[in-house]
Amino acid sequence: MTLLDFARGPAMQWSLAILVFGVLWRLLGVVLIMGKKDLSKPRRNRMIVDGLATVATRSLPVHQFEKRIRFQHLSGYVWHIALFIAVLFSAPHIIFFESLLGIGWPHLPNSIILFFATIAMAVLIALLVRRTGHPVQRSISNADDYVSVVVVIIALVTGILATSHFGARYETLLAIHLLSVEALFIWFPFGKLMHTVFIFPARFQAGAAFGRKGVRA
């Protein structure tokens, strides 16, 4: 069995199994926590409106802090959008998604994918450097923050190398990229990358809960 066969076969199967099990396990934990009934009398009954409003407002920085966090806020949007395009509109990725979901969609040229992947990688590295150099961010960061950033950077770097056929045989580059993505899959449910799943439901729940108490989230 070659390294590529291993990456495409057992490693992919196990990493996907761990990813799915881990995500479902975390979601089950959230459901069980939310199952506790609130016996207090609601100040108002607009849970859906308050929840959706909080999803929208929390996506923008608080006006009082905007100048201090502008770089973090804008760079965060840039790297997420660039990553979204690079992951969802790359032809090999679409083939992979189609094998799992049974549906596909049009892809973008490799040159465009490389451009957005490079942007995502550069911004993420800049954010990592800022995290290590900023005294406040450094003090509130833990191993999870760094591991979560590093596994994404490695997946981006290996993907860029594989797409550009640079540095080694394509089969070797592809195998390394697949293994890096599989490491990301395994880490995903247990680290802060899980915010991808939790971010909007958490904002909605906060808005609904605070709205029930008659206050703004």
Which key features would you list for this structure?
217 residues, mainly alpha, Fumarate Reductase Cytochrome B subunit
Characterize the structure shown:
The chain is mainly α and 217 residues long. It has a single domain (3-24, 45-212), classed as Fumarate Reductase Cytochrome B subunit (Up-down Bundle). Helices cover 76% and strands 0% of the residues. The chain is built from 10 helices and no strands. It has helices spanning 3-8, 10-34, 47-57, 66-88, 91-101, 110-133, 135-140, 143-164, 170-187, 195-212. The termini are far apart. The model has no long low-confidence stretch (mean pLDDT 86).
CATH topology: Fumarate Reductase Cytochrome B subunit
CATH C-level: Mainly Alpha
Sketch the topology as an H/E string, one letter per element. Answer: HHHHHHHHHH
Radius of gyration: 20 Å
Based on the coordinates given, report the CATH architecture. Up-down Bundle
Distance between termini? 55 Å
Count the strands?
0
Q: Report the biggest beta sheet as strand number plus sense, adding barrel if it closes.
A: none
**In what range is the share of β-strand residues?**
under 5%
Average pLDDT: 86
Present the secondary structure layout:
Layout: H1 3-8, H2 10-34, H3 47-57, H4 66-88, H5 91-101, H6 110-133, H7 135-140, H8 143-164, H9 170-187, H10 195-212
